[in-house]
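Suppose you are handed only these lines of text.
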Amino acid sequence: MELRTVGVLGTGQMGAGIAQVAAEAGLSVLMADINIEIAEKGKAGIAGRLAKAVEKGKIDAARREQVLALLRPVASVAAFEDADIAIEAATENIDLKLRLFKGMDDACPDRAILASNTSSISITLMAAATKRPHRTIGMHFMNPVPVMKLVEIIRGLQTDDETCAAVKALAERLGKTWVSAKDAPGFVVNRILTPMLNEAFYVLMEGLGTPEDIDNGVRLGLNHPMGPLALADLIGLDTILAICEVLHEQLGEDKYRPCPLLRKYVEAGWLGRKTGRGVYKYS
Ligand code: NAD
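From them, the structure of the protein bound to nicotinamide-adenine-dinucleotide can be written out as follows.
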């Protein structure tokens, strides 16, 4: 099944990134969020990134226009009536995602695949909220989407082989490498990454080092490209807390308990780069 039109629901940092790589691969993209203004903001962010790529000589102005012409912000998911696949990339919250999956199921044609970019939430549960559980799947992109090579593909209990093959082919068309992961909290990547990021907040809370000491220690000592606190600011502290909560609740082990300092930062609205302040300040 060839996929030509992609609907992206949630046009924050991940949704906009997914929309960008889909348009760069020549696919038509519908971008929806809470309202059209937010969807337009998502497209404006892509336009800005592509303008920088033109300035740096990485692409020419005609290529920028070609990609932007394939991106259409829409007022709501109702516009997904011609989508071959809808990819949900909204805030990491189970109740919200169940509601959005019902909406995508109602709006999309019967042939369409419904995918989620969730970091941790059960694909099987989202599939069960639709009338097409066999055509529902997890497509977990990494941040920033245009840069990172990996897509983790997660089959729900109900997902059929045709759907799995179609999204693997789509990931390859987007220039990505895929790995398969079972549908368990956090799948593979976040089962490993999130406890490490959470531990970095415990290390900070216990005063074992400054943010710079912790990040430089991991960067230079473990050869990671970014320190865990800087990475947490990039991902979004609200998203990390939400993933920790899913791991803690569903795996039931104390080792996944969200760090109280992480929770405090989220309560303060210090969500990282996207709000201008997280562990570090951004201007
Ligand atoms: P974000 O905060 O940048 O964007 C979330 C978007 O969802 C916002 O634009 C928001 O307006 C939108 N949204 C909220 N309620 C909505 C609704 N009712 N209808 C439509 N849109 C709605 O978050 P993000 O970092 O882009 O994360 C989005 C998803 O991607 C989450 O499930 C997250 O776990 C996952 N993810 C994030 C990362 C990361 O590094 N940030 C990596 C992989 C996957």
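What can we learn from it? The pocket of nicotinamide-adenine-dinucleotide is lined by residues 9-15, 33-34, 38, 89-92, 96, 100, 117-119, 140-141, 143, 235-236, 239, 274 (CB under 6 Å). Residues 248 and 257 are 6 Å apart (CA to CA).
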